[in-house]
Structures are given as C-alpha cells and as structure tokens.
Amino acid sequence: MATRKSKARARPAKPAADKQLAQAVTQSAQKIWLAGLGAFARARTEGDKLFELLVEQGKVIRSKSEKAADQALKTVRTQADATMSTAQGKWDKLEQVFEDRVSRSLNRLGVLTSKDVDELARQVADLNDSVRALMGGAAKRERKAPARKAPARKAPAKKKAARRTAK
C-alpha cells in the first residue's frame, strides 16, 4: 500500500527578528531624513557665505583673465608691428632694386635722366653767356620772333559708305 506523505507545515516567522529589522529600517530612514534637514539648514545659514566666497573668486579670476587678454593683445600688436616694419623694409629694398634696374636699362638705351638734362641745360646757359661775351653788343639786340604759320587746312571728311544689314 501506498503511504501518504504529509506536507510540511510552514513554520511561523519569528516575530522578534522581523520587529528588529523594521526598527533598523525605520531608524535608518529617520537618520537619512535628519541628515537631509541638517544639510538644508547648513546650506541655508552658510549659503550666503559660500555665495559671497564664490563671487569673490569669480572677480579674481575675471581680473586675471583680463590681464592675460591684455598681455596677449600687446604681444600680438608688437609682433604685428615688427612684421609690418620688416615687410616695409623688404618693400623699400625691392623698390630700390627695381628703380636701379630701370635706370640701368634706360642708360643702356641712351635715355637721359633728369640730372643729365639739368646739367646740359646749365652747360647751354654757360655757352650762351660765353657767346654773348665774345660777340659783344651784337648779342644784346633782341631777336624778332619768327612769324607764325597759319594752321593747315583740314581735308573734308569722307562720307561713310552705308552699311547694309543682312536679314
């Protein structure tokens, strides 16, 4: 015959252990709540002090950053001025080289410079003075201006041939 197995009965939970666990959770929740209230109270009392401290630190950082920006700007301007003066010097040198080459080329072609023309004009004036001195009073007489020529007549304009346009 078959024997019947009896079911194991559930044992009742220990009420003391459950009670202790519930008290521990309650105490922990109360401590967390009290810590939050303490943090809130401290932030409320020390919040203004902390805020003022942060404002002062911000002012210090701002003044340092302004000084750094001013220094960087001065450095950039100094470098730009140095670059500009270097570029100007190079440009002047290039201009001088160009003028020298053009002058040499013109001299090779036999073109007179303004200095040469001035020297020739001085020499002509000296020669005129010498000739007048040699000729005596004859050079003192005024010369008559040459008669002006009548302007040349223009040839009558030729008529333009009529253009035909292709349609």
Structure explained in plain terms:
It is a single chain. By secondary structure, this protein is mainly alpha-helical. It is rod-shaped and about 165 Å long. 70% of the residues lie in helices and 0% in strands. It has one domain (19-139). The protein is built from 2 helices and no strands. The longest helix is centred in the middle third of the chain and has 95 residues, at 15-109. The protein has helices spanning 15-109, 114-135.
Q: How do the strands and helices of this protein lay out in sequence?
A:
Layout lengths: L14 H95 L4 H22 L32
Whole-number count of domains = 1
| Strand coverage percent | under 5%
Structural class: mainly alpha
Helix content: over 70%
Short account of what is shown:
The protein has 2 helices and no strands. It is mainly alpha-helical.
Label this structure with key terms.
167 residues, mainly alpha
